[in-house]
Fold this sequence. Notes:
Blueprint: H1 3-17, H2 30-55, H3 57-63, H4 65-78, H5 93-98, H6 105-122, H7 135-138, E1 144-147, E2 153-158, H8 159-166, E3 177-185, E4 188-193, H9 196-206, H10 211-221, H11 227-237, E5 242-245
Antiparallel strand pairs: 1-5, 2-3, 3-4
Amino acid sequence: MSGYLAARQQALLAALSGASRPIGIVPLTAVELQRGLQAYQVNAQVLSVRALAAVYPKVRQIIGEASFRAMAWAFWRRHPPQQADLGGWGKLLSGFLAAQDEMEGWLCDLARLEWAAHLAERAADLAFDPGSLDLLASQDPAQLRLQLPAGLSLLQVQAEAWSIWAGEVADESSQAVIPVLLWRQRWLAKGQRLSQGDSQWLQALIDGRTLEVALQQAFVADVGFDFSAWLQAALREGWLQGATRVIPGA
């Protein structure tokens, strides 16, 4: 790129951001500025739709192509990307939707589910430590914590949002709030509806509670909570990273 073109780009960026024009840079003419702004707008509109469509395919399907495009561009202007990796942009969409007049709560929850699935698929892989589980047989539960894999998340969502995301038929009121677990398995996001006991158990683990405290919370929510059954499922599905001892004072 020639020095002249680079200088014109710097001037356009300064105009877009409202920053002061770099010293020594000749200001853009009105025609140049208008053309630059139009090119930026067209490119940003295309990028906004492409980036959000990759993360929110079900939201796109529900609201329709035209509405999705308009929403994506409005969201871009309200929450422009702060980094070059557009795969990390879009977290605030559920809140953006919730702020719109007469927006359905289940649609906002559907966006939350799709973002959680996106994060699960982007999460870093960490090696499972099977040897650490020997601590379960030798240590006091009050001195142990269970580690969960990156990308695993627990959400409370309306049943209708879950049924759309999972492709299932809701068996209760569509507005009922249910606990849902999302994680990654073989590079693809998976989801599962949870019992109240499993939900309280996992929330305690996510909050960094000891095994003893997590078990207490699970039994309060469901006296039939079965730790052995959960452990088998966790090992099969990949919900568990390992176990660690609690460091006194930490």
